[in-house]
Amino acid sequence: MHPSFRMQFEDMVSISAVPSQLIAALCDEFGFKDLIIIAGEIRYDEEALLMQVQKQGLFVLVTDHAQSEAWDSARVLQTYKGQAAAETRFRLLKDPVILEAMYVKQPRRVEALGVVFVMALLIYGLLEWRVREQMKREKEPLILPGNRKSFTPTGEMLLALLKTI
User: Please, what is the angle between helix 155-163 and helix 107-135, to 10°?
Assistant: First the structure.
């Protein structure tokens, strides 16, 4: 814990004198054996907190989009944060079941296989996006295998659903 947030328990907390009838009623209501009511106040060193905030630094994003209404800083940040969705899909390509069976020796074939994989991920993402956009207009959730209901199914769930057809 940062030194500016350390509390002296004795200085910060006072035990309220609560009538025993109220304690008994609360214990009966909630099934507690004992009830201790503690009231306190949290204090922190504002100067130390400000120093910690300043040490955190800045988050710098560089873009080739000119500053305009269409590309304000919020949109640039949102677009950057959205990359995580695309990058997590690449974990599908690292699945040992897919990669163990691949034996490609020529560099041009490795490159071609990479293009096929990226195209497959693009289609996978488009499938997920299109279904989710349609589900925004629906009132009933999609019933997935295992009797699961979802308005935002993943691509993996959708492929499992398509296998049943």
Answer: 90
Separation in Å, CA 125 to CA 113, 115, 116, 137, 158: 18, 15, 14, 19, 11
Per-residue model confidence as pLDDT tens digits over 123-156: 988 998 999 999 999 899 888 878 888 888 888 8
Count of residues making up the chain: 165
Helix (H), strand (E) at residue 144 = strand 142-144
CB 127 within 8 Å of CB 155:
yes
Q: How far apart are CA 32 and CA 101, in angstroms?
A: 60
SS3 (DSSP) at 41: coil
Among 122, 104, 125, 121, residue whose Cα is nearest residue 113: 104
User: Do 35 and 19 meet the contact criterion of CB atoms below 8 Å apart?
Assistant: no
DSSP, res 40: E
What is the residue type of 7?
M
Question: How far from each other are the two terminal CA atoms of the chain, in whole angstroms?
Answer: 55
Q: For residue 11, name the pLDDT band (cuts at 50, 70, 90).
A: very low
Q: How many CA atoms lie within 13 A of 140 on its CB side?
A: 3
